[in-house]
Amino acid sequence: MKNIVPLSEKQLILAHILKKSREYVLAHPEIRLTKKQEEKRKKYEKRRLNHEPLAYILGHKEFYGLDFKVTPDTLIPRPETELIVELTAWNIKHGTHSKGERIIVVDVGTGSGNIIISIAHNIKHGTGNKLKLYGIDTSAKAIQVARFNSKLNNSENKIEFVKGNLLEPIMKNEICSMFHDPCSMIIVANLPYLSQKIYASAMPDVKNFEPKSALFSKKDGLDHYEELFKQIKILDTRYQILNTIIEFSPEQKPALSKLIKKYFSAVKPKFKKDLAGKWRLAVITT
């Protein structure tokens, strides 16, 4: 990073201090800060020059057109992850499930809740199906952030956030037994997937500030997904799992293909590229 803060980031910092939009800042170049505001601006820019992510400095990040609170306890939402939201919403609206069937969507490793909240927002107008949404995370602090974001984005009555490891909260409770009609499940996950090599070479913005537990995974970055697949194998005997949609690092595609084959021998996963043309998502239909 250069020894100056980019102009676009300076504008966002100024907008945050003024409690205005960036567009307002652009439209009012004559703005003059008070002494207190100027001190705050210098403090924020110094933090940014020390590689602290702008999202942590400002305390929020936009994702899928919504605003999310972020803290050092949660991973900062990335634009490429929006593809999970799009694919999941499409599956809910146009998938092979029966109309009127109850669908459970489980966001594993929910973090700030950005994925499951964006899904709830995207399907708010109804799909002809009964939906129940869950967000699971091992971090109690992340769950607190997710619940805050759910209220912030008017979805607190649509999503249940639960503390637990991967799918264990679902495995311990016969979720579908709570309902009187059949139900199917869609599992979405953006789990830690950076290998030791990739994590070691990550930018200071990432490695020095974002939680390692949300980034790094053993076994070349696939340890968390292997544990998830083991749980899905068990759940697959209880529910109809429509799809599992996961995000991964582009170089992992060959190894991930083998891992999927190991646990779901009859499955031919579909891989999707992000807007940068890099392999980013795998869709597993069991």
Question: What's the quick description here?
Answer:
The chain has 286 residues and is α/β, with parallel strands linked by helices. The protein has helices at 7-18, 22-27, 35-49, 54-58, 82-94, 114-122, 140-152, 168-172, 196-200, 204-207, 218-221, 223-235, 253-263; strands spanning 60-63, 66-69, 102-108, 130-137, 159-163, 183-189, 240-247, 270-273, 279-284. It folds into 2 domains: 7-50, no CATH class; 72-284, Vaccinia Virus protein VP39 (Rossmann fold), CATH 3.40.50.
Structure in words:
- The protein is of the alpha/beta class and 286 residues long.
- It has 2 domains: 44 residues, no CATH class; 213 residues, Vaccinia Virus protein VP39 (Rossmann fold, 3-Layer(aba) Sandwich), CATH 3.40.50.150.
- Helix content is 40%, strand content 19%.
- The strands form 2 sheets. Strands 5-4-3-6-7-9-8 form a 7-stranded mixed β-sheet, covered by helices on one side.
Would you count the extended β strands for me?
A: 9
The biggest beta sheet reads: 7 strands, mixed
Gap between N and C termini, in Å? Answer: 44 Å
Percentage of residues in helical conformation: 40-55%
Q: Decide which structural class fits the backbone.
A: alpha/beta
